[in-house]
Design goal:
The complex is a heterotrimer. Chain A is of the alpha/beta class. Chain A is built from 17 helices and 20 strands. Helices cover 79% and strands 0% of the residues of chain C. Classes of the chains: A alpha/beta, B mainly alpha, C mainly alpha.
Chain lengths: 535, 271, 315
């Protein structure tokens, strides 16, 4: 008999139906992945099982955990069940913990709540479980507060809290989305190991198909509130049936076709660039600490070349971007574009305008009070010979057409567009002055996989039409692999490896690059044994 | 338009209208004395009764509201015209000596309770409506500086500001073009709150003799006159008091309503 | 933690120094010479000079500033121009009325506001919430001195439950004295309670939307348990700020309320001194009030660190 049996679950919030006829089973010790794009209803399925739904939700169907039907239970009964029989791990480890309580108090809370043990006994249990998730008490005493831990460590605390009572079912809602790739691999290993050891059922919710392929026993693909396909992982990967599933996996594995790069001719040259921050003094008479976010970085970007920059959060890639864009000054080193030096914060510099940028956040990149036409023509500001009147209107219309939007869209405001359309507008803004160089700063990281593919294809098209040069910065190695000719790997402020893209991915030399690549989950599962891996 | 906003605008609008009408017409001359007809209760001749000198209370409330609104409004303009640029500048140069100085200065002004500031100014320069305005105007400056800076700082981290900087725009231009329009909502809301507070402050200062001086009527002065007579003729205190309450209530409701109206994020409180 | 306290103490001293400079400078530019004001128009130049020496008006300004500040640090607030008595003695009597009144009012305000805010937040959108919110809107709009007049009208004159004004002194018994302060405290507290209720409610609603509250529910805590164990302490962070601000407000508010109830507090002292142009008293009392406000903000900062561990390490 299965541990969790969801049958014909439908859910509507207010008048809007969000889940339709969802049926899913999870057995003891089984990992079932629920995947799909944003808005597909995968998280709401999890919250339905927890019965933690927003007000105004109407639920029908049955959710059985063992012999009990959760839909028929009253609130006190559910409270007795949550945290004891079902544990849950959330996406955002930074906010999922109470900032004003110690981790000891938070991890021991379920023990005291459900088993009524003494404080000392509960704390002993908390120490045990924290050690089990990789936070041994000698290094991570119970008196630590969440803000004293890193993101990955916090996620371990959240997991400890969820499994301290050895629940029968563990629900993990995008548990690694907010984490770096090496941390992600550790957390996924931890979750898999715990599931196997304790014989729990694990409902793993993630948008990342590669994560799913690497760890799940079975996969259910959701779309618009329905499960469109469900099968054991191996079967699904080798013989997927539903066209949506096929499209989703095809999008994840998609490679764009870049035109070949022209012969090398240096465009952007960075020599020994260093950027450090002075931290505020922590002690009254101590020397202020200096953090070197970018240390002695040198590289050359050739005209027409597509260069990638990868690294984990905090490695200095954002700082380097800001320095290249002239938003922050460099303390040492020299950057030239077309042989002319770049200076930070110089509004007059025409050189600056030969460089444009596309940011990650499709929602934060635009002033909500300006029309699209005004937004995308902003880069004309510092151009000495910026077109005016009719010529400007034509340039705006052409820029919008180039990115697949209608020239009429220039009169609309940004809130009328979807995330993917906004990134198109951001690209239009970056290209309108025909800059020598475009910097893409995590430009597709916030997009769903199917939207991402269309944007990447658009970039390849534009590259064919206009011969673009770009620096593509991302934590997502698979994206970088598909849209660059050469890659720089950054760690702790330094560039540790530099190689042509295919060479780097197939024959990495630096240990950090190897570690990074090993941590990346891949879709090539049929070649690999997954089930025995973590036992 | 939401209900709060409608009620708020209606209430405060009504009194502001009354105050404006008083410029051209009042039922009686608010300065004409009629000692035999003093302390009349509200009735057909005098809609809201007469005071201890036989003056028509409705006329006095109309003119008094005008004074109170004018005092609050001028102080508001002072606060906005100094506070907003300071706040914008502090945010644009975050962490610099300019920012530090502005914020330190704010802290110091905040350490002076409004009334204490008014007392200090009045003690030195003598009581007058102008000094009351200056005191409240000075009090408003750090309020708006802080609100502006607080709202502007997260904007400076937003990517559209970085895009503008990449386009070569300087801090002053970015502040005017991108920051100011995006903090206006917050300023309007804070403005209605400070406006309402201004009405109360005028009343309080005039009540203790630090504000508007005789013979100019104001709602606060009417209450000061009423204090000794309140047992004899409670309506002398009740009528101007209610007028203050209704104006302030109206402005506060309008402020809250505006905030909900202008900021859709506040309407989406998760459970 | 020690680092945090040291840092705050540093800015405390700085604020006090700047505030004292401002107060001194403003009173210095006041027109008129206190000595000639005290002696009238027909004073002999010799007596005038003698008085100026006695009052210490003939030394350079910088020296006067430092002797004023130095005096206050040792409890010597100077000599009143009009009463020719020590300002510190006059102030000591008055503070025994003003501070208890402010504390009384703050206590009332907190006692009313915390439960009212909790009640409204727990019934968000319901009739109870709407009722509380409407009451707070009204409460915020009512001027405290007007409310004081109405309280006198009803509870002192109509029903004679409380005295209409005056203060018998603490030596007449704690109960009697407290009774005399009750109506003034209510008048001061109610508008502040309305503000604090709103802050408490919105702080709670903000906290209820936090991710860690969902985590708490996922552990099996009931909504009420989650609120008590995880919500309240986080919600108190903004509430504490407002309580700190309110104390300064109340402290200053007593100045007006004392006028309505004829209470012999700091407020009356200030007004008497203003009309007598006794600037040394005004100067010292204003400095005292500002000192009180800055001290309270300092204490609130320390209380923050007690509530929020993030502040202790970050400093």
């Amino acid at each position: 008999m299965s541990l969790l049996d969801i049958s014909n679950l439908s859910l509507s919030i207010g008048e809007t139906p969000v889940l339709r006829d969802v049926s899913l089973r999870i057995g003891k010790g089984e990992i079932v992945a629920l995947t799909g794009e944003s808005g597909s209803g995968k998280s709401l399925t999890a919250f339905s099982v927890m019965r933690l739904l927003p007000q105004g939700s109407a639920l029908s169907g049955a959710i059985r955990l063992g012999d009990t039907d959760l839909t028929a239970m009253d609130e006190p009964g559910l409270c007795a069940l949550r945290g004891k029989d079902i544990g849950m791990v959330f996406q955002e480890p930074m906010t999922a913990l109470n900032p004003v309580q110690t981790i000891g108090a938070q991890v021991s809370e379920p023990v005291r709540l459900h088993e009524g043990t003494t404080r000392a006994a509960a704390r002993a249990r908390a120490e045990d479980v924290l050690a089990r998730v990789g936070l041994p008490p000698d290094r991570f005493p119970l008196s630590r507060y969440p803000h004293e831990l890193s993101g990955g460590q916090r996620q371990r605390v959240v997991i400890a809290m969820a499994i301290v009572l050895r629940p029968r079912l563990l629900i993990a809602d995008e548990p690694t989305t907010a984490l770096d790739v090496t941390t992600q691999a550790q957390i996924l290993d931890l979750l898999t190991g715990l599931t196997r050891e304790d014989g729990m059922g694990l409902m793993m919710i993630t948008h990342d198909l590669a994560v799913v392929a690497g760890m799940a026993d079975r996969i259910a693909v959701m779309r618009e509130g329905r499960i469109v396909e469900e099968a054991p992982t191996r079967d699904l990967l080798t013989g997927m049936q539903h066209p949506y599933t096929k499209a989703l996996f095809a999008a994840s594995a998609h490679r764009v076709a870049l035109p070949p790069a022209p012969p090398p001719e240096p465009l952007l040259v960075a020599q020994n660039v260093t950027r450090s921050y002075t931290l505020r003094r922590t002690r009254l008479f101590a020397k202020p600490r200096v953090v070197e976010a970018v240390r002695d970085v040198s590289f050359t970007l050739n005209r027409g070349e597509r260069l990638g920059l990868v690294g984990e959060s905090g490695c200095g890639k954002s700082t380097l971007t800001r320095v290249l864009l002239g938003l922050d000054p460099a303390q040492a080193g020299r950057i030239t574009l077309n042989g002319a030096p770049l200076r930070a914060g110089s509004a007059e510099a025409p050189v600056q305008n030969r460089m444009q940028v596309v940011f990650q956040d499709p929602f934060g990149s635009f002033n909500p009070r300006h029309t699209v036409g005004r937004l995308i023509s902003e880069p004309f500001h510092a151009l000495p010979d910026a077109p005016g009147g009719q010529a400007r209107a034509q340039a705006i219309a052409a820029a919008l057409s180039d990115v697949g939007l209608s020239p009429d869209d220039q009169h609309r405001y940004i809130h009328e567009f979807s995330g993917g359309q906004r990134q198109r507008i951001a690209i239009a803004r970056a290209l309108i002055t025909r800059p020598d160089l475009v910097i893409f700063d995590e430009a597709v990281s916030a997009l769903d996989v199917s939207v991402r593919v269309r944007i990447l294809d658009l970039l390849a098209d534009l590259c064919r039409s206009y011969g673009l040069t770009w620096l593509f910065i991302s934590h997502d190695l698979s994206v970088v692999r598909s849209v660059t000719d050469r890659v720089l790997v950054m760690q702790a402020g330094k560039i540790v490896e530099e190689a042509p893209t295919e060479t780097l991915f197939t024959a990495p030399r630096h240990p950090y690059t190897r570690k990074l690549l090993a941590a990346v989950p891949t879709l090539d599962l049929p070649l690999r044994e997954s089930t025995e891996r973590h036992v | 338009m939401n209900r709060q906003l409608a009620i708020g605008l209606g209430l405060s609008g009504f009194f502001i209208l009354l105050a404006l009408v008083s410029l051209v017409w009042t039922p009686f001359d608010h300065t004409s004395l009629d000692i035999p007809g003093k302390l009349q209760l509200p009735g057909s001749a005098h809609l809201l009764g007469t005071d201890h000198l036989g003056r028509d209370i409705l006329s006095m409330v109309m003119v008094g509201a005008r004074t109170s609104v004018a005092v609050a409004l001028v102080a508001l303009v002072i606060g906005l015209s100094f506070g907003v640029p300071l706040g914008l500048a502090a945010a644009a140069r975050r962490g610099s000596w300019l920012d530090q100085t502005i914020m330190r200065g704010n802290d110091i002004v905040f350490a002076f309770p409004l009334l204490v500031m008014a007392i200090l100014i009045t003690a030195v320069f003598g009581p007058s409506a102008v000094n009351a305005i200056i005191a409240f105007g000075i009090f408003n400056i750090p309020v708006f500086a802080r609100v502006t800076r607080g709202a502007a700082l997260p904007l400076w981290e937003r990517e559209f500001i970085m895009a503008a900087r990449v386009a070569g725009k300087g801090p002053a231009r970015i502040s005017l073009e991108h920051i100011l329009p995006n903090v206006t909502n917050m300023l309007i809301v804070q403005g209605t709150i400070q406006f309402a507070l201004g009405i109360q402050v005028e009343a309080a200062l005039s009540f203790v003799g630090l504000g508007v001086q005789p013979p100019t009527p104001s709602l606060g002065r009417m209450l000061a006159d009423a204090q000794t007579l309140v047992t004899l003729a409670p309506h002398l205190a009740i009528v101007p008091g209610l007028a203050i309450i209704l104006i302030v209530l109206g402005l506060n409701l309008a402020g809250d309503g505006l905030r909900d109206q202008l900021d859709p994020r506040l309407r989406r409180h998760r459970v | 933690m020690l680092r945090y306290i040291l840092k705050r103490s540093g800015s405390l001293v700085l604020s006090l120094a700047v505030a004292s400079l401002i107060i001194f400078a403003v009173t210095e530019i006041a027109p008129g010479d206190p000595a000639s004001f005290m002696l009238g128009l027909n004073a002999q130049p010799e007596t005038l000079a003698a008085l100026r020496t006695e009052l210490g008006l003939d030394v350079p300004k910088i020296q006067r500033y430092f002797s004023w500040v130095g005096g206050m640090l040792t409890g010597d607030f100077g000599t009143s121009y009009t009463y020719r008595t020590q300002v510190s003695e006059m102030v000591a009597d008055r503070i025994a009325v003003s501070i208890p009144l402010a504390v009384y009012a703050l206590t009332l305000s907190v006692i009313i506001a915390i439960p009212a805010g909790l009640f409204a937040a727990s019934r968000r959108g319901g009739a109870g919430d709407t009722g509380v919110m409407a009451a707070t809107q009204l409460g915020v709009a009512v001027p405290n001195f007007w409310f004081a007049m109405m309280l006198v009208l009803v509870f002192a004159i109509h029903w004679s439950w409380f005295p209409a004004g005056g203060f018998p002194g603490w030596d007449k018994g704690f109960g009697t004295a407290l009774r005399a302060l009750t109506l003034p405290a209510i008048a001061l507290a109610l508008p502040q309670a309305a503000i604090l209720t709103r802050v408490m409610r919105s702080a709670l609603l903000d906290v209820l939307g936090e991710d860690f509250m969902r985590t708490a529910r996922a552990k099996g805590l009931s909504p009420r348990q989650a609120l008590w164990r995880h919500g309240l302490r986080n919600a108190f962070i903004p509430v504490l700020t407002v309580i700190g601000l309110q104390f300064s407000f109340l402290f200053a508010g007593t100045i007006i309320i004392e006028q309505v109830f004829y209470l012999p507090g700091l407020g009356r002292l200030i007004f008497q001194s203003i009309s007598a142009r006794d600037l040394i008293v005004v100067e010292s009392v204003v400095m005292l009030v500002v000192f009180g406000v800055i001290m309270i903000n300092f204490l609130v900062d320390l209380a923050y660190a007690a509530i929020d561990p993030r502040l202790r390490t970050r400093a």
